[in-house]
Design goal:
By secondary structure, the protein is an alpha+beta fold. The protein is built from 18 helices and 33 strands. The longest helix has 25 residues. It comes from Nocardia acididurans.
Amino acid sequence: MTATMSGPLVGRGFDRVDGRAKVTGAAHYTAEIPLPGVVHAVLVGARIGCGSVRSVDIRAALNAGALAVFTHENLPKVATIPPQFPSAYGGPAPGQTFFPMQDGEIHYYGQPIAVVLADTFEIAQHAAELVTADYKHKDPLIRLDDGRDARYQPEKIFCGLVPAVQTRGDFEAAARSAAHTFDATYHFAANHHNPIECSATAAVWDGDTVTIYDSTQGINATQATVAAYLGISPSHVRVVSHYVGGGFGAKAMMWPHVTLAPMIAREIGRPVKLVLDREQMFYGTGLREEQEQRVTLTCDADGGFTGLRHHKLSVTSPFDDWAELSLGVAGQAYAIPHYDGQYQLVSGNIMTPTFMRGPGEASGMVALECAIDELAEELGVDPMELRLRNHAAIDPESGHPWSSDGYVECVRTAAERFGWSAEQRAAGARRDGDWLIGWGMGTAGYPVYAPGQPQRAHARLLADGSLVVQAGTQDFGTGVATTMAQVAGDAMGLEFDSVRVDIGDSDYPNIAAAVGSMGAGMISAAVHTACGDLLAQVMELAIGDSASPLHGRIAAELEVHQGRLRVRANPAVGETYSALLTRHHLIDMEAIGAWNPPDQNTPFGKISFGAQFAEVAVDPDLGLVRVRRMVGTFAPGRVLNAKLARSQVLGGMNWGLSQALMEATLPDVRDGSWANASLLEYLLPVNADAPEVDISFVEVEDNVVNPLGVKGLGELGMIGAAAAVINAIHHATGVRVREIPVRIEHLLDFRST
């Protein structure tokens, strides 16, 4: 049954429903949940990057008050190590196909070698510092350059899902006949996530069932993964995660501590809480790998792109062929008929890399967008015009039309808001006192992913006319409960305040992990479907009720408005939900709706597009770079909440600034550690670094991706921002830096003329 539905709540900028709890301290994050009789666990990490443990001395720790210490000698064996699999597809999602403390081998610095337990966190922490180990040391390999000669090309990367070689056309032929060829290599430092909340897990057993409190981006992925490791049914694992203090990919996969907590809790018969400290976050939750990308771009005499060779070399762990998908959108965003994309790897002594905000595209689009700017300079063409001239009207990989586009509108809108013009930009470096001023741009693009299983939600209409929606998802800063209330309110014709949303519990209907910008699309689709099924039931009840003023009508004649079913052609005829349920002596009516994602072979290309512009000021004597303003316009399909969408993009754009100018994790080749594994030395932007930011959206209609046409936004705000900043630096100074992040040292030799 269908009916016209009132609204709209969707699109409006409602405040977050969890805002008050967070600012007043009422929100309990995982480490803050009170658990009677809890034992605190602290990890001890290896102090070498490669080798083995000869012995672990725990005597001082026990003398200092530790209740127990687990090492590879007494930790239970895991039942299985499930294959590494993105949680987005619904299966177990271990962070790496290796589980520590099963033997004495050390594969990377910081790998857990012991877990210390005590009645208080302070005692556990102190005792952990007293644990010592005797190692058999081997020289670690942690830098890309040190393993370059041993590079290899796997058959597939990214959990075995993506071929390492992807080609179309004949690039070599395109290169031979090209009027112009540009070839450059870009190097990217390793990066690490730094969410405000460090990762934490707590576990409580009740017989053969365990409740796990976890800071995770996917409660159902945690459930499936822990069950596989422990060898028990997922039905015996409940995962709760009401509040997550940021994830950005660090909490998308299930790292060893998530299983260690319930494993040890089962052994000692008491609840266990395990919290990583800030340094352990650098060794325990993945990273964006060090990488270099070689881009060769060819074009004809008119600047039309004819070929792209994009090769990536990066460092992975000794046990996983992982590389972020840097060549995806970069190989699709422009109409390039001949393409050669390849991934090569160096096996190093690091933990397996993982998702990080804008995974793949945040690096791949930097390399391509900087190369396009460099080619534009060689051709004497405005960089914006060159991009518009070559935008792909259809997906060049599949030949299919885009499910929706918006790229050209984004570029033109952002350029107008920024004040970009070819004449002004080409005039050479402008000055503001001693500062040199530069302008730059970059394209944003991110694939529209979909989970590989149905997504479900539960909708329950109460007799007072209010609605309760439940879904097995979690909020890690995106405001999902707020947008779910908007979607549900529109679907049921209710005001925003009449909808309550319950999330953060795996007992609720299954939702896949919110990674790859899938969260808004899949969750809104599940909620919309559940509410649609519920509304059909309610309308059927009214139509079949002889006492209802709607008796005998058909669904197509009806609409809902402010909790009242009514005849669309005669709004005075109708009744409230409350009156209908009360007359039938019903406490509630409910439905579980399941949204089936479209098949991956749907004949459409699916990418969210955008464009970013930046203005920088450079001090030519000191090499200082200040980003003064940024403009971004994006086409993410339907925007569910204008305020939250802007907040997501604002954070992403500032992260792009950080990627361009600050973030780098530096390896210590002596022991395989990270030399700056702290927030004191890992550079991040602060308020003083944040520029003026102008954000706008181009809403494009998309009838392919999901019922509401939501394409996703989380990653998109970061992509393109770093390239815009780097290109602006070149415009200001004439210096082209191909090592990211751009540092003061890169600009110290520059002097203005």
